[in-house]
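Ticket #476: bound-state structure for protoporphyrin IX containing FE.
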Amino acid sequence: HPPYPPGPRAFPLIGNILDMPTERFVLTYSKLGEKHGPITWLIVPGRTIIVLNTYQAMYEILEKRGSKYMDRPRAAMIQDLVGMDFITALRQGDPIWRLHRKFLRPALSLDTIKRNYSDLFIAGAHQFLESLVRKPETFRASLKRSLGETISDLTYGAHKDDKGNDYVVKQEELLVYSTLASAGYLVDLFPLLKHVPNWFPGAQFKRDAKSWRQHMTDLRNLMIEGVQKRMEANEGRSCYVVAMLEELQKLKDETGADMSEDIQAVYDSGFSFYQAAADTTEIALKNFLLAMTLFPEVQARARQDINRVVGSRRFPDFGDQGDMPYIHAVLLESLRWNPPAPFIVPHASREDDTYNGYFIPKGTMVIPNVWQISRDPAVYENPSTFNPDRFINNPKILDPRDFIFGFGRRACPGSHLAYQMMWIFVVSTLWGFELERPEGEPPLDSDIDRFDFGFLSTPTRSDATLSQERMLLAIS
Ligand code: HEM
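RESOLUTION: The complex was predicted; output attached.
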């Protein structure tokens, strides 16, 4: 077969393990790109990997040849041991995953979202404003709570049940576990380790996986029970899961077909929403908040746009959307400035392929470093500067939504939902508040000081740790 793509030298047995980052992932991927070009080849035990560093390579491989690259790499810890392989984002590209996508396409289309969920988004944004008035110092926890309730309401028609179970807190706990489980375990490299007994010394990963799996199973059951109860009592607002179940019931009544697989797919795709939507949207909004404090002139101009259209005697609403081009540019720039998922969710190839004369074998993990696109000066001038005007002055510039939401068959089905939800939170926040940095904060002049470059890259913070924030949420 043709040669493999260029890459760093691999050592016997361990391959390129030492070249793989354990933190600030995309900074290492970008360095590999500088040295080896748009496509870099790496081998670790049991796995071949390519890292992509240009939009063109990502588009040509993942978009144009989408059907060859629609699988996900296998990860023993999160998929097999914790059992999260039923979630849309982690499923292989199998017929059930296709069923998920078939349900998600119409349910998350721009039309459906505007028609069914605009009021919900506005209520979520107002809840955020109110908590900013009451407790501005816990704005991060308030943002998490308002977005979490909105996503939960949209999915299940409720964010708690009649026994006082708080869906947001429980989903947030699961997010912590899924983040831990995808952090990279030895068992991911050597899947045979999953057969080690739980009591074996050093098998803490198996005991953790067992307890995280239990939490997830309990939560799945809780969500299903809650929906069934609310449907029986005819309560709760209209939402994804109930709307889909009602449609399936209608189909069943008409045709008498067995719908059990479809029903399970509705529950499982619905369960994926919180996991896929909460942290990503929250980070995108935190990028916006940080940018407003670092670039006050942008903030002032955005507020002018809002004052011109909305004034101070009513709240902004979606009817104002077309009249505020600068706000649209601020949103695009917030998404570009720090893509929330800086190397999206890796894909895997399902057959052998050749690209630009290089051989990519079946089963190769594909890591698209979209952060690198956001920092490519040939695409975006002065890329670290937050400059919404770049989208106004140059209509041909690459829209960040074309890469931050991924590529091909796996591209994020929630991109419209994310944009609409962000839009109302951004406009409402600027309508109600002036955002300033507390005195004495470090200047945050460079990217490296601003963002943490994790799996999801979040603005860094000086005042408290993430776990404290989650605790805050739990008690708020
Ligand atoms: C700013 C917010 C968001 C960002 C940056 C984002 C980004 C992404 C990315 C990069 C992927 C992987 C794409 C790929 O593999 O090529 C993805 C997948 C996914 N996203 Fe989003 N997302 C966001 C919000 C949402 C929302 C609001 C939903 C609503 C339900 C959602 C649902 C999903 C689902 C279900 C998948 C899995 C798709 C699959 O594997 O087939 N996302 N998202």
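RESOLUTION NOTES: The mean pLDDT is 94.
TICKET STATUS: resolved
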